[in-house]
Known about the structure:
Order of helices and strands: HHHH
Distance between the termini: 64 Å
CATH class of the largest domain: Mainly Alpha
Shape: flat
CATH superfamily of the largest domain: NADH:ubiquinone/plastoquinone oxidoreductase, chain 3
Strand content: under 5%
Amino acid sequence: MIPINHLAVFMMLAFALLLGLVLIGLSALLGRVKPDPHKLSVYECGVPPSGSPRNRYSVKFYLIAIFFLIFDIEIAFLFPWALIVKSQIPLGHMVILEMFLFIALLLVGYIYIWKKGALEWD
């Protein structure tokens, strides 16, 4: 027997799945399909594409994306911690030390990638 709390979640999940399938089915049945060469051509920001789509990108694009994710995750960890500190809940010295170690570790990583030149565009 499913508890009543879980039943509501399963009903909402079933409704969302059913609604998604119904809308996809209606779109497939009622949608107009009139392909022409202009609609099927490649479109990039209003500019005709130049060169092959198989060109290699520099590794620096991927590095910048990874750095962005790392520092974005840092903010995701720092924000709740800052809210707890602001709420005047008594925290032990260990919690503050852990946060400063976390920030120091990220700072060391940032200095390392800066010294390696990964943030410079050539």
